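User: Teach me something about this protein's shape.
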Amino acid sequence: MNRTVRYSTVTQALDEPMERLALPADPGRPVLWALDAVRHGDAAQRLAAAVLDAEEKRRAAAFRREADRRCYITAHVALRVFLGSCLGVGPAEVPLRREPCVSCGGPHGRPVTGDGRIHFSLSHSGDLALLACAALPVGVDIEAVPRPEHAREITGVLHPTEIAELAALPEAERPAGFARAWSRKESYLKGIGTGLARSPALDLLGTGPVPVSHPVGWTIHDVDAPEGFAAAVAVRHGDGS
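Assistant: First, the predicted structure itself:
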């Protein structure tokens, strides 16, 4: 189960019609779509006014850096195109809502489609965005490999075994190992809906080339990512065990 999932980067322009997407027959295998805001940003900008809702537009406007705004718009326009192709509706008609937060019960939990029959997750880092869509709860994360000093500062939040694994690596390899571990954890925490309200130290997923274990009821897969990035997707088992 520790295989690497390969995704294909979108090859069509975002403002061209997308064929209806069907989820894989295996409910535990998500559809993955990677995008580059530099490559796809112009098309996303053209669609944004007609596709994004008021809250998405407000969030986009709040970014101070143009590159961050461009990536947010690209990711969220693509998400609506992606989900619309799965649901058979236009991107602006995709019904999105938030589940109650599993930690406090507030209206800011995991995002879901209106009827909940398609599960999805979205992550973006730098100029890259990664989307996942599945018939079961799913989480996805993409992370830029951090600078060595930043990796050193935050390594202490990992599982004790992961901290030891990183300490055993040559110093130059530690940032990439940290990024692998962090993307796995973020994908899982998004999947279960807690985000970082659940401590990243609780789950041992590993810093090496493949995950060393999987939380009960979930499988973690590494996802191919461009040089300088790490990515992962977490999918719940159909029987929840």
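Now, about its shape. The chain has one domain: 4-236. The beta strands are 4-5, 8-9, 31-36, 96-98, 111-113, 119-125, 128-134, 138-144, 218-223, 229-236. If you'd like, I can walk through any region in more detail.
User: That's plenty for now, thanks!
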